[in-house]
Amino acid sequence: MSQAEAVARTGAGRPRNPLWTFGILRSELATTLHRRRTLALLGVLAAVPVLIGIAVKIETSDGSPAGPGRGDGGPAFLSQVTNNGLFLVFAALAATLPVFLPMAVGVIAGDAIAGEAGAGTLRYLLVAPAGRTRLLLTKYASTLVFCLLATVVVAASALAVGTLLFPVGEVTTISGTQIGFGEGLLRAGLIAVTVAVSLTGFAALGLFVSTLTGSGIAAMATTVGVLITVQILDSIPQLSGIHPYLFPHYWLSFADLLRDPVYWDQMVKNLGLQGLYVAVFGSAAWARFTAKDITA
Q1: What is the rounded CA–CA span in Å between residue 255 and residue 80?
Q2: Interhelix angle for 216-234 vs 100-119, to 10°?
Q3: pLDDT band at 124 (very low <50, low <70, confident <90, very high)
Q4: pTM value?
Q5: Is the separation of the CB atoms in 143 and 38 below 8 Å?
Q6: Exposed/middle/buried for residue 215 (C-beta within 10 Å: 0-12, 13-18, 19+)
Q7: pLDDT reported for residue 2
Q8: Residue pLDDT, tens place only, 137-188
Q9: Which of 32, 197, 279, 288 could form a disulfide with 211 if both were Cys (CB 3.0 to 4.6 A apart)?
Q10: What's the pLDDT score for residue 170?
């Protein structure tokens, strides 16, 4: 018996209540996180900080500095890794956020509905008392959990590698002031949560794409294709007028959490933009899915 059939049978005859909703979510999370594809994605994400840490260690073995040596944003974090291994967390998140993290999320979100349709299990999942709206919300909630888990995997791997390969101690902020290691660790946690939240808009877009087709592969490919296209548009100076409306434009604003005092303007814009994408594409996904003729 498939997981979808099991959910349908165990749910038959039960009243609609929050406990049943949590049961669907628990089942969905268990299924998603035990798939080999999901484990492979998390493995790749965990390997990225390891490769960065080893590369920095080798590069600086003769005393030469790491990275481009600029004082702010993205790759510039690499120049601080040799002084404090905690900066490997920031460097790894900056390296994975533009491509690796959203691609992983795109695979999970794109496969959420289309994968079930392609496997012929979607009808089982829609048996009462689940319902289309509840199922869609469960799929999105599961994708959000993956966003957080993927980000934590990158941060935890980077922290472990940074601690093993480099010294740790007080953290020098982008503003030039120093904060204690404990506060630096707290800011690293806040940055990880901010990165996860930054992926919520793209996750909603991927879920919408997943409702448009019955092929999981097509949905995943389309979602990743949209990501690449938008990233290219965001890098073209002549299109600067539309940049503030593109979902990845403020992704790297998490670096402002390493300022003293913290700059909130760009991060607030990022959170607002992600909320807008969630509202628009979440509504579009609901409208499409609730009116869709389910044949598989």
Answers
A1: 14
A2: 150
A3: confident
A4: 0.86
A5: no
A6: middle
A7: 45
A8: 999 999 999 999 999 999 999 999 999 999 888 888 888 888 899 999 999 9
A9: 288
A10: 87
Q: For residue 65, which of 75, 185, 257, 73 has the smallest C-alpha distance?
A: 75
Phi, psi of 178 (to 5 degrees): -115, 140
Closest C-alpha among 78, 23, 24, 21 to residue 51 = 78
Dist. CA 202–CA 208, nearest whole Å: 10
55-100 pLDDT tens trace: 988 887 765 555 554 444 444 577 788 888 899 999 999 999 999 9
Q: How far apart are CA 108 and CA 106, in angstroms?
A: 5
DSSP code string of the chain: --HHHHHHHHHTTPPP-HHHHHHHHHHHHHHHHTSHHHHHHHHHHHHHHHHHHHHHHHHTTTSPPPS---SSSGGGGHHHHTT-TTHHHHHHHHHHTTTHHHHHHHHHHHHHHHHHHHHT-HHHHTSTTS-HHHHHHHHHHHHHHHHHHHHHHHHHHHHHHHHHHS----EE-TTS-EE-HHHHHHHHHHHHHHHHHHTHHHHHHHHHHHTS-S-HHHHHHHHHHHHHHHHHHHT-GGGTTTGGGSTTTTGGGGGGGGSSSPP-HHHHHHHHHHHHHHHHHHHHHHHHHHH-----
> What do you get for the CA distance between the two ends of the chain, in Å?
17
CA contacts within 13 A on the Cβ side of 247 = 27
Could you tell me if 204 and 140 are in contact, meaning their C-beta atoms sit under 8 angstroms apart?
yes
Residues 276 and 31: their CA atoms lie apart, in Å, by: 29
Structure tokens at 6: 């099991």
User: Which pLDDT tens digit goes with each residue over 91-112?
Assistant: 999 999 999 999 999 999 999 8
